Amino acid sequence: MARITRRGTLGLLLAASGIAQALAQQAGDLRIEGPWSRAAGAGRTGAGYLTIRNTGREPDRLVSARAGIARAVELHTHLHEGGVMRMRPVPAIDVPAGETVTLGPGGLHLMLLELRAPLNQGEAVPVTLVFERAGEVEVRLAVQSAGARGPAAPHRH
Ligand SMILES: [Cu+2]
């Protein structure tokens, strides 16, 4: 049920288009697709995955992210070091003009540090992405099971 808040119309709009919001979000020349996460407990670390499509002629960069559910959100990559996969923070994630960058398990990802509440399967958790050119974009991570390997398949109509 939609709750009337100070965000008023925007809140109702988000509630009405909740599914579509979870699947794709447009910001300038950027299209954010399939944001998802995995179930995780409060106090633990969560991950955020999504695809960024840059349909414009200018490069952009994801420079930071934040989420009310986490103490902090870092941009991470995975690196092979001596045969071991390790995560490392990166200062930014480049999204070159005309290209698509995928954040996914085993690669680039958002790291949600010190979760203030659990990530429950079936929920859509808001995360704000901050791009150098496109500015701030709020997406909703569709929380899958703890062992999920990808976002749920979109419904076909
Ligand atoms: Cu990480």
Task: Give an overview of the whole structure.
10% of the residues lie in helices and 50% in strands. By secondary structure, it is mainly β. It is globular and about 40 Å long. The two termini are 24 Å apart. The structure holds copper (II) ion. The site of copper (II) ion (CU) has 4 residues, from strand 9.
Would you kindly provide a brief summary of this structure?
With 157 residues, the chain is mostly beta strands. The chain has one domain: Immunoglobulin-like (Sandwich), CATH 2.60.40.1890.
- Largest sheet, if any? 11 strands, mixed
- Fraction of helical residues: under 10%
**Rg (C-alpha, Å):** 16 Å
Report how far the terminal alpha carbons are from each other: 24 Å
Measured by DSSP, the beta-strand proportion falls in: over 45%
CATH fold node name: Immunoglobulin-like
Describe the secondary structure blueprint for this structure.
Layout: H1 8-16, H2 18-23, E1 24-27, E2 30-38, E3 46-54, E4 60-66, E5 70-81, E6 84-89, E7 93-95, E8 100-103, E9 109-115, E10 124-131, E11 135-144
Parallel strand pairs: 2-11
Antiparallel strand pairs: 1-2, 2-3, 3-8, 3-9, 4-7, 4-10, 5-6, 5-9, 10-11
The structure holds copper (II) ion (CU).
Keywords, separated by commas or semicolons:
Immunoglobulin-like; binds copper (II) ion; mainly beta; eleven-stranded mixed sheet; single chain; disordered N terminus; 157 residues
